[in-house]
Amino acid sequence: RDEESWSERATGVPWFHQFINRPVRGPEHHLSGRIIVSTERASVELLLIGHTGQVGGALLKLLARAPLGYRIRALAHRAGVYWFREPQHPAEVKLDELLPAGAWLDRRGVDFLTLDVATARLAAAGGAAVIVDCTASAEVARRYSKWLAAGIGVVTPNKIGFAGPQADFELLQG
């Protein structure tokens, strides 16, 4: 129970188990307009950045046990992004099978992409999409406002996106 409590606090899971707060799509809405998407009624596609770290790994394990509509669309780390052509239930993701091995990945329905290409695909797919950033990377955090503007929700257990220059913080606030 203590380990589970730590994992939930570290990943922010209690908040996004119930709701996802994301920008309304469309030019007629201001970025600060929000809709609530219940994960019990809709499938939510996740791009998880930092799945090999402690927090990202703990989140993946929690999602595998959660009876909710989360689907892993992509897993990202420093070398690139594993993009699943068909979203995967978190319990079905086999991390030990994901090696950058060209044709091997292709036969299993996995593309190896850059983060920019993967987030563009996620935005173009429509539907409920969330990027979960479990890194402590300022480079990744600088992309939050772009992702939010594209209609992709952002969840992070770190403070980097909010601890930079005031202008960057104001961009995130919409």
Notes on the protein architecture:
By secondary structure, this protein is an alpha/beta fold. It is 36% helix and 26% strand. The chain is built from eight helices and eight strands. It has a six-stranded mixed β-sheet. Strands 1-2 form a two-stranded antiparallel sheet. Strand 3 (44-49), helix 3 (54-65) and strand 4 (70-77) form a beta-alpha-beta unit.
* Coarse shape: globular
Largest sheet: 6 strands, mixed
Q: What is the total tally of β strands? A: 8
SSE ordering? HHEEEHEEHEHEHHEH
Structural class: alpha/beta
Rg calculated over all Cα atoms: 16 Å
Helix run count: 8
- Proportion of residues in extended strands: 25-35%
Q: Can you list the strand order of the major beta sheet?
A: 6-5-4-3-7-8
Helix content: 25-40%
Average pLDDT figure:
75
Distance between the termini: 38 Å
- Low-confidence region ranges: 1-41
Characteristics:
36% helix, alpha/beta, two-stranded antiparallel sheet, 174 residues, 8 helices, disordered N terminus, 26% strand
Question: Which SSEs are present, and which pair or pack?
Answer:
Blueprint: H1 2-11, H2 13-18, E1 19-23, E2 34-38, E3 44-49, H3 54-65, E4 70-77, E5 80-88, H4 103-107, E6 110-113, H5 115-125, E7 128-133, H6 138-141, H7 144-149, E8 153-155, H8 166-173
Parallel strand pairs: 3-4, 3-7, 7-8
Antiparallel strand pairs: 1-2, 4-5, 5-6
